[in-house]
Amino acid sequence: MTECIIQGPCGAVSIQATPTGICAVRLLQSDTALKAPTTALLNAAAKQLEGYFSGTLQAFTLPLVPTGTAFQQQVWQALQQIPFGETRSYQQIANAIGNPKAVRAVGMANSRNPVAIMIPCHRVIGANGQLTGYAGGLDKKAWLLQHEQQPGQTRC
């Protein structure tokens, strides 16, 4: 596995890849030394994330290879169907995967998404429209959602 660390508008972003695809994107909680991409795939991922952050990219076109259970994979596939700038509730995702009683399980799968932003778990909100947990922090989730409504914002 290879890794690079780029500067995002909300702090450092770690990107990890296997030879076959991107396996992790994490918003880091503290400032971390940047690390240049060392492979073509990491370079492409860094460029696409920079495009997303600048407001010029709305859809990622990289191979993603997150590790998870079959259920988690199903949820993550559903998350990738949420259009840029839109949100869905946990209930809507549970319905989309044909398991309307799995709302809590959807929440758990969402929280274990290893490929933040590219698999847009930040687009999932509570049924009442409120922001709920986000591994990168609710401030970053709020920024990502606002950024998708008004692309090209500056920093968090």
From TrEMBL:
Reactions catalysed, semicolon-separated, are: a 4-O-methyl-thymidine in DNA + L-cysteinyl-[protein] = a thymidine in DNA + S-methyl-L-cysteinyl-[protein]; a 6-O-methyl-2'-deoxyguanosine in DNA + L-cysteinyl-[protein] = S-methyl-L-cysteinyl-[protein] + a 2'-deoxyguanosine in DNA
- Gene Ontology terms, MF aspect: methylated-DNA-[protein]-cysteine S-methyltransferase activity
Q: Which SUPFAM superfamilies match?
A: Methylated DNA-protein cysteine methyltransferase domain (SSF53155), Methylated DNA-protein cysteine methyltransferase, C-terminal domain (SSF46767)
Q: Which residues form the Methylguanine DNA methyltransferase ribonuclease-like domain?
A: 6-64
What is the annotated localization of this protein? Cytoplasm
Presence of keyword DNA repair: yes
Gene Ontology process terms (BP): methylation
Q: So where's the catalytic machinery, residue-wise?
A: C121
Q: Which PROSITE patterns match?
A: MGMT
Q: What is its EC number?
A: 2.1.1.63
Under Pfam families, the record lists: DNA_binding_1, Methyltransf_1N
EC supergroup of this enzyme: transferase
Give every Methylated-DNA-[protein]-cysteine S-methyltransferase DNA binding domain span.
70-149
Bilayer-crossing regions: none
Keyword hit for Ion transport: no
Provide the alphabetized UniProt keywords: Cytoplasm, DNA damage, DNA repair, Methyltransferase, Transferase
What domain of life does the UniProt record list for this protein's source?
Answer: Bacteria
Function recorded in the entry: Involved in the cellular defense against the biological effects of O6-methylguanine (O6-MeG) and O4-methylthymine (O4-MeT) in DNA. Repairs the methylated nucleobase in DNA by stoichiometrically transferring the methyl group to a cysteine residue in the enzyme. This is a suicide reaction: the enzyme is irreversibly inactivated.
Task: List other remarks.
Answer: This enzyme catalyzes only one turnover and therefore is not strictly catalytic. According to one definition, an enzyme is a biocatalyst that acts repeatedly and over many reaction cycles.
Its family remark reads:
Belongs to the MGMT family.
Q: What's the protein called, per UniProt? A: Methylated-DNA--protein-cysteine methyltransferase
User: Lineage of this protein's species?
Assistant: Bacteria, Pseudomonadati, Pseudomonadota, Gammaproteobacteria, Alkalimonas
